[in-house]
Structure formats: structure tokens, C-alpha cells
Design a protein that fits this description.
- The structure holds two protein chains of two kinds.
- Chain A is an all-beta fold.
- Chain A is globular.
- The N and C termini of chain A lie far apart (about 40 Å).
- Chain B is mostly beta strands.
- Chain B is globular.
- Classes of the chains: A mainly beta, B mainly beta.
Chain lengths: ~110, ~120
Amino acid sequence: EDQVTQSPEALRLQEGESSSLNCSYTVSGLRGLFWYRQDPGKGPEFLFTLYSAGEEKEKERLKATLTKKESFLHITAPKPEDSATYLCAVQASGGRYIPTFGRGTSLIVHP
Amino acid sequence: GAVVSQHPSRVICKSGTSVKIECRSLDFQATTMFWYRQFPKQSLMLMATSNEGSKATYEQGVEKDKFLINHASLTLSTLTVTSAHPEDSSFYICSARAGGSGSGNTIYFGEGSWLTVV
């Protein structure tokens, strides 16, 4: 059974204090790993898809990396507007394309 | 990026009535659509998966006669909550997958629909 574990559950940072969110996964064969941002009361917003170990993608202050067992979402010099819940999901090869989600990391960035 | 539009964003209905939520992929054809339910401060709970022109596949514990899903075209899926009761009040979110490999496999979410049954 595919599993995704995100840590920490909650993270409080000061503005400008860089940090990383972790997504550990087990999957029979990885088709893709997704990162999303979800604001309260809204649907998840797509950030990145990673497909193979060693792959990295960047968008503004965010950088996602992937190994065979985990993915990191690095946040550089965060701002208060980066406060949100960050969700990680894996999609196994074969099957019904259903992503398995982690429980998310709730990030609060204080000014 | 790809856009998935969900409507209505908020709906209030009386107990015993039915309500329909629409999910549209605006700039791509959605091979597969997923419907989720989310309770406050909890993770997404997959309700069902639908492929265009096929019957939806429901997750264990989801009543298919209560939550009717229709994926009539490659850009539209609907969720109808039949005979709604207060316990059906929740945040419902759809998502869509374009299909194919690579970037076409990415799954995009709608904005969500808040349902309140009174």
C-alpha cells in the first residue's frame, strides 16, 4: 500500500527564516510526486510535479527536490503570504492514477 | 497553468433536497476526474474517480446512490448530493487529470464548494 508521511505537522517561521518541509513516501513504482499549497477554505493549488530521483524544480521562493524515498520543499526567505498548508502526494505507476496524499504541513510565517 | 473551475463555491440547501456541483476543466481535456470531501483541518478524503463516459468508481464507504457522479464529457463532471442531510455539510473539491505521460499527468484542483444543509 502506498504511503506518504509529511513532517513536521506544523511549522512556525519568522519572515526570512529559511526551512524545509519533508515528504517521505513508499510506493510500488513512482509515476509522479506532487506538491500543492492549500489556503483555508480553498482547493489545493498546484506547485510542482517531480518524476525521478535527482529532479529539482523551483518557483519563486520554493524549491522541490526528489530522492527515491523522500521529497523536500525548501522555502527560502519566506514571507507571511507563504503561510498555508503544503500537501504532498504520490501517484503510483499502473492503476487508476489516484494520488495518495500526506496529511500536510501547516506553515505559518510571522512578520 | 491548467484551470479547473468548480461551481457553485457556496450553496445552502434544505434538508431532503438535492444539490448539484459542477467541475469543469477550462483549458484541457480531463481524462479522469476525482471528487474529494474535506472536513475542517483534515486531509482530503477521496470519494470517487470518474472517467469520461464511464461509471464512477466509488471508494469504500461512499454511498453511490447518495453521491451521484456524472462525467458526461472530457471537460465536465458533476456531483449531485441527493436527499441531503445536515451531516452532508462539508467542503467538496474536484480535481482533474489531463491524461498521458509527463506533464499531462498532473492533477489540478478546483476551488472547492462549501455545502451547508439546513
